[in-house]
Structure formats: structure tokens, C-alpha cells
Amino acid sequence: MVSLDASPPVLDVRDLRVSYRGRGRVVEAVRGVSLRVDPGEVVALVGESGSGKSTTAHAVLGLLPPGGTVDGGRVHIAGQDVTGWPDRRLRAVRGLRAGLVPQDPTVSLNPVRRVGHQVAEALRAHGLADRRTAAARSVELLDEVGLPDPATRARQYPHELSGGMRQRVLIAIALACRPDLVIADEPTSGLDVTVQKHVLDQFDRLTGERGAAVLFVTHDLGVAADRARRIVVMRHGVIVEDGPAAQVLGTPRHDYTRRLIAAAPSLTSARLRPRAAHATPSPPLVVARDLVKEFRLPAGRRLRAVDGVSFEIARGTTFALVGESGSGKSTTARLVARLTTPGAGTLEFDGQDLGRLRGPAVRRLRARLQLVYQNPYGSLDPRLAVEDVVAEPLTAFGAGSRAERRARVAELLDLVALPAGTARRRPPELSGGQRQRVAIARAVALRPDLLILDEPVSALDVSVQAQILQLLAGLQSDLGLTYLFISHDLAVVRQVSDIVGVMRHGRLVETGTADQVFTAPRHEYTAELLDAIPGRTHR
Amino acid sequence: MTELITPVAPAPPGGPAEPVPAAERRDRGLVRRLLRPGLVVAIAVVSVALLWAFVPGWFTGHDPITGVPAQNLRPPGADHWFGTDHLGRDLFARVVHGSALSLQAALIAVLIGLLAGSTIGLLSGFAGGAVDDVLMRVVDVLLAIPGLLLSLAVVTVLGFGTVNVAVAVGVASVATFARVMRGEVLRVRQATYIEAAFASGVRWTGVLRRHVLPNSAGPVVVLAALEFGQAILAVSALSFLGFGAAPPAPEWGSLISEGRNHLATSWWLTTLPGLVVIAVVLATSRISRALGGDGSTTW
Fold first, then answer.
1. Among A82, A320, A474, B67, which residue's Cβ finds the most Cβ atoms within 10 Å?
2. In chain A, where are the structural domains located?
3. What is the DSSP string of B220-282?
4. Angle at CA A503, nearest 5°, toward A502 and A506?
């Protein structure tokens, strides 16, 4: 910074402090962050939710949400001190000198404007093109970010594009004016792994060609490891570690970094539980044969969500179904849970044909087969106290007296390592991880045989995710549970499963033991999925 | 990402380390919202009207039924706050004593609308399919007829009297309640926790009672507060038309109606009871907004 011969950093943040005000409270989100990004450098800013990483990124561009204020510190972009600039002056910097790739591609594009227009807007806002040249240039840009048939895409609306395509459009907008710095805020967190890999590869190539520096904000250490030369770890609004990627990941100095690395499933491959012993030759708990489920679409078309899926789940083991969105894995889980009925094929649970069960018999089955949902924010009734949520299945089946149920609830909360005081609180007062523990306590309340886990950890931060996975592994050995584990995250699946089934377009393309699928995949799609797991280049 | 979350101390062993919003913060916000001047006035107005209904003696010493003929048609003054009518009866006393009948009628009307309407809406939204279709077409028919006309038709069938007027007004509001309730139930029905309850083995009656009803009742309660004001108006309108309380008994609508005969000379006979009705209706509407959690109202 002091030396004059070296080119100045494109981003130099010194002692930045940001707080949020609301309802008479002040929350310090960023507490003295200093950070620099040199020209052409790729820096990853890593942290969990609430760490202040996104706030830092937004404060740099003057894009804080209402209530957020910069309390101190200086921000230099491309050698220019932009601290405290009014919005009007900052607008000339945004896009031109520093582009932003926002977090959520589903809401970051204007739904009533064609995407070509939105790319052209970025060019015209900075006077880099007029009406006619902007249109042609925007098609070029869309082509550069790898959109197939860019001229057609430019005339389409955001809802006509997939999530990956929309993210490419956002990248095109951010790169339109060839900025020196691109701030990417969790650019791919909502995308499937294979799509994520393609989008990020393209992004790396483009920024590399243009020599743009990148500040990559992410919660995923694996992604950071793959993409960044330097990694900055944030926690509770301060930077805890800053260094070259290899050093941060290989010899982390801070305890928190060490814990993050240990929790990141993509960076560790240790199993959480010894492999289930297959010594007891008992009949499998679940047998699915040629399951088919079709959904009727408008205009008389039909969508085959599940197409001839067959598998068996042995008692006490974990069967994982892996696939990307739309692969039919969740529908399969709902079929097994008897929340919907198959169009064809048979499904046996402990020798009973699930398809033939009706009315009261289905309800009796519920006692032996429970579900844990992906989103703990949606699966718990916000108005009920935790003890009532956990007691719900007990009450529904009239298990024990009121006092016995209360005792059982206390026991269950203890089992999932929640403090006893949680019993009287309501779900909105709990964190995501705590809520998922409540959901698990409810699911095991009736001592079921089978637990269907539908993406149980994908809505959680990595360190919380690791704790929940550990809890699930512990419960499985203690209670002898059988798991059907649905996930899009191969790294998580590797940690918990015995048998893995890979689904694509409603078909089960490969089934095998976890070791076999992960080390010697037979199907090319499995290989592609494995290749897309972030963090592999590091390991 | 959620930056609005406070940093907290490291995790207790086994427990996840994530912040927990404090319940006290919500309470403080509630207190502040309750102290908005408009809301304070609104609550005061409704409280006074209710006190009039229950303990009229606290507010006036005059007799609402028998007047002093010598003092007829006096303008408002220190003796008679609202003036007197053509029989020399104190108008303020009549308004105070009349609130019992008016509010009672409005209450009955709202209860009928609330109970019948939300039951229809609940069943319709929860059952779906043919049940939904049939119930909603009935509701459509009710909505197609103007409310007051429907009330008039019902009260003509039932006969005169305050309770009958109340029933008539209540029947006219069933459709609105049913619509709002159904909409809420349809929204709640989609929630994962409803499916989770079914998956836990809870019977449909249990799901309805424990999950659907409590989570969809909010807007209906807000509507009830709003409809209370509307019911006061509708009951007054029907009384004004002569379907309500029999003559000597005071009632807000009939007071305004009687005052018409002397409108040219004695403006207070229609205006002051009318202003009371307006004040109470506006107050219930403001309270209803507060119940609806409208934080944007600054007064």
C-alpha cells in the first residue's frame, strides 16, 4: 500500500465497521475488518451465516439494506477513496470499476424485462454503448458467459431460463463494463453441483482472461479451496484468519478455521459411523420394485418423476438417494412415506404391501415410519411450544398418560442434546440447528423402524450440519434405526451411507455400496457428480 | 445471508451455536405500537361505548324514556349535553342507554358471521374438491346480493326486533368471513408442518384443530373487529328504516331516524348520535388495523 512502484490494490478496506439499527437495538455486524484484494487476485471471504461476510461485501459497494450504516473505516476501490460517497457518486463506481454478482438468481433479475435488455442496461448506464450497439454487445456478452443460443436467450424473460442460466446472465451483467473487481456474493449456493461447477469454471475463465480481481463471498470452504488463491475467514464480524489458500486449509492457525475445515463434508471423507454389519441375515425392511409416479402437467402432458425405481433397504443400514433437483429423489421418499401412492410398481415395508393399505392401516404404519424434512423453518408449527411439537405423535397414538408423555418428551429432548429449557419455547425462537433437532426428536418419539430424512442438513450451516449428522449417526446405532437418506450433496452422503443410489431424470442410474460408488463409479453421470464436488482439487 | 443476527458466545457442548431472538424485544415493539395516539383514542372510544352499555348510570342522571315536555327541543348546553328531543327527553341519556341495544346487536351479528363464516371457510378450504365447490358457489350467491338488501330480506322474513335485525346483519356477513377464512386455510394447508402432522399420524380432525385453525384465525379476527364497525352501521341503518327497536326504547339508528322530523330546526337530533356512530365505527376500524399487525401506521 505504501510502496509506489507496486500497482495499488483494487480493493483496500481498512477497519470497516458496520452496524444495523432496528427496533431500538444496534447490532454490530462488521467490527473492524481490514481486507485487500490485489489486481487479478481471487480472494475468498468465508464464513457462516451471521458472520458479516455479505455485509462487508455490500458495504464496500454502498449497497447496505435500510437500517445498515457504516460506522467507521475507509474503503478504497482502484486507488480511489470512496468512503462516505453519496449514492449518486458511487453509482459511477458500481458496475464500471466493481461489479457485483448477487446471491439469488431467482430474485435478482427484473421479471418483466427481457434479459438482453438487462445486460444492455448495465452498458448504457455507464455510457459504454448506445441503444443500438448495446443490444448487439449484450448478445456477445451472453455468448461469452456460455449461454447457448444467446440471441434467442436475450429476447427471453428470466422465468424462461433455468437457475444456472440466470446466474450466467447476472455474471454477464457484472462483467459487462470490464470492471477491475468483481464481488461475487454466494453466486452458486442455490444451484446443483454440476451446474455450479460449470458456472464457476466459466466465471473463473472470464475473470482470468480480463485480469479482473475477484472477491468471492461463500459459506462453502470447498468452493473457496477450488477457486481462490487467498482465503479470508470471518466470524462474528471480525476476520479470524487470512492467508494463502493452501496455508489456511493445510495448516490453519485459528481454532475456528480448524473447526470449519473439520465440519466441511467436502474436505473430509471420514465416516461418522462404522459401516453397518451385514452379519444378521434378516429380510430387508423396505423393498421397492419398479416404482413409477407420474404427475399430470397442463396441456395434457405427463411428467414421469419416478421411472421404474427398484431398491432394497436392509435393517439398521442407511440407504442414500442422491441426485440433483428434479431427479425424483424426493418423490421417491414421499412414495416410501406413503404420502403419495405409486402409479405402478410395488412397495413393501416389513413384508406389508404399502400400496394396499387403506385408512386406519396407513395411520398405524405412521408409527413405524417417520419423516424429517429439509426445512426446519417450515416443518414445525410456529404456534406450538416445542414440547407439544415433540409430543404430537405420542398424543396422536394415545401413547401413555399425560405425565408419561411429558417424561418421554424430556427424555427425547435430552436424546437430541437440547437443553430442557427448550421445551417451553416456540420454534421461531430457535435457531435452524435447534429446530432440526426438535424435528428429529418428534420423528423418533414413537421409536419407528424407518426414518426418512429428506435433505435433513441442506438448510444448515456447515458446523451445525456436522453436529446434526453426528446426532443422526449416534441415534442410528443407539436405537437401531434404518435410514432412507435423501440428499443432493454427495459429500454428506459419503459420510453417512452404507448403500448409495444415484438418481437422474427419475431413474436410478447406479446402486452400490458407498465405497464402490465413490471410488469406482460405473455410470458416467455418477462420475460427473463426483467430479463436481467442490474442494476436490485441494484434497 | 442473515446479517441481522447478533453474535453469540461459543456453542455449549452438543448444542448448536446460533443466536436466538429475544422475546423481550418483541414485547417492547408491541408496547410502542400500543402507545400510538390514534390507537389510544380508538381504544378509549370503544371502551367508553362499552361502559355506556354496561353502566349507563355512571354517565347520565337523566331518564332516557320519560322527558320533561316543557324542555323540548333545547339545543346542546350544560344541562343537556346533546340537547333534548321533541318530547323533552335528554338526547345524551338516550344515546348512552341506546348503546346497549346497538352494541349487543352488532356483537350478535359479528358472532353469527364469524362462527358460520369461518366454519364454512375452514371446511371448504380444508376439504377442497366438491365440498369446496358447492360451499363456495353458495358463498358466491350471498356475495352477489348487496349486504343491506339481503339483511332487509332476512329481517322481513324474521319479523321486527333488535335480535332479528342482528341475525339479518350477521347472515349478510357470513360470505365475507367464509372467503377470508378459506383463503387463509388454503395458505396454511400448503405448509410443511401440516404434512408433517399427517406424517406423524395425527388424524385430520386433530390437524384441523391443532394446526390449521390457530394458524389461520389471525386475519379472521382482524376482520371481526372491522365487521363490528360495519355491523353497528348496518344495525343502525335497519333501525333507521324502522325494523329495529320498538319506539320508546332508544337505539342509535332509530334516534337518528326520529331526529329527521326536526332536521330543519334541531340539527343536533340527527348530527350528534350520527357522530357517535361514526366515532365508534372509525375506532373499531383503527383497532382492527392494529390487530392486523400493521406496523406502518404511524398514528
1. A320
2. 11-263, 271-368+448-539, 385-447
3. HHHHHHHHHHHHHHHHHHHHHTT-SS-TTS--HHHHHHHHGGGTTT-THHHHHHHHHHHHHHH
4. 165
pLDDT digits (tens, 9 = 90+) for B94-152: 888 888 888 888 999 999 999 999 999 999 999 888 999 999 999 999 999 988 889 99
Can you tell me the distance from the alpha carbon of A460 to that of A478, in angstroms, rounded to the nearest whole number? 24
Whether the CB-CB separation of A389 and A396 falls below 8 Å is answered with no
- Residue-wise burial string across B56-68, b where 16 or more C-beta atoms lie within 10 A, e elsewhere: beebbebebeebe
The CA distance from A406 to A253, in Å, is 46
Write down the CATH number for the domain with range A11-263. Answer: 3.40.50.300
pTM: 0.76
Give the list of residues 6+ apart from residue A489 with CB closer than 8 angstroms, or none.
A193, A265, A457, A458
Q: Which chain A residues have a beta carbon less than 8 Å from that of B1?
A: 49-51, 53-55, 103, 186, 219
- Is A414 in contact with B14 (CB distance < 8 Å)? no
* CA A397 and chain centroid, separation: 36
**Do A11-263 and A271-368+448-539 fold alike per CATH?**
yes
3-state secondary structure of A28: strand
Answer yes or no: are the C-beta atoms of A469 and A496 closer than 8 Å: yes
> What is d(CA B27, CA B31) in angstroms, rounded to the nearest whole number?
6
| Domains of chain B listed by start with CATH number | 96-291 (1.10.3720.10)
Residue A310, H or E segment? strand A302-313
Q: Tens digit of pLDDT per residue, chain B (299 long)?
A: 433 443 333 333 333 334 444 444 455 566 666 778 888 898 999 899 888 888 888 888 788 887 777 888 788 887 788 888 888 888 888 888 888 888 888 999 999 999 999 999 999 999 888 999 999 999 999 999 988 889 999 999 998 888 899 999 999 999 999 999 999 999 998 888 998 898 888 888 889 999 999 898 888 988 888 888 888 888 888 888 888 777 777 888 788 888 888 888 888 888 898 899 889 888 888 888 887 766 566 66
SS (H, E, C) A475-509: HHHHHCCEEEEEECCHHHHHHHCCEEEEEECCEEE
Grid coordinates belonging to B14: 452438543
Nearest-CA residue of chain A relative to B12? A419
DSSP 8-class letter at A319:
E
Using the CB atoms, write b or e for A245-257: b if 16+ within 10 Å.
beebbeebeeebb
Q: Which three cell numbers stand for residue A402?
A: 399425560
**Identity of the residue in B2, B20, B193 whose CB atom sits nearest the CB atom of A430:** B20
Residues near A57 by beta carbon (within 8 Å), at least 6 away in sequence: A45, A100, A183, A185, A215, A217
Residues 479-518, chain A, touching B (beta carbon < 8 A): none
The CATH number of domain A271-368+448-539 is 3.20.20.70: no
**A454 near B CB under 8 A:** no
Nearest to A504 by CA among A483, A482, A529, A521: A529
ipTM of the complex: 0.73
Look up residue A28 and give its amino acid. Answer: E
Quick one: which of A280, A284, A447 has its CA closest to A350? A284
For residue B3, the chain A residues in CB contact (below 8 A) are: 20, 29, 50, 52, 54-55, 68
> Which residue does chain B place closest to A375, by CA atoms?
B192
List of chain A residues with pLDDT < 50: 1-5, 279, 539
What is the crossing angle of helices B162-189 and B147-158, to 10°?
Answer: 130
Among chain A residues, the shortest Cα distance to B27 is held by A23
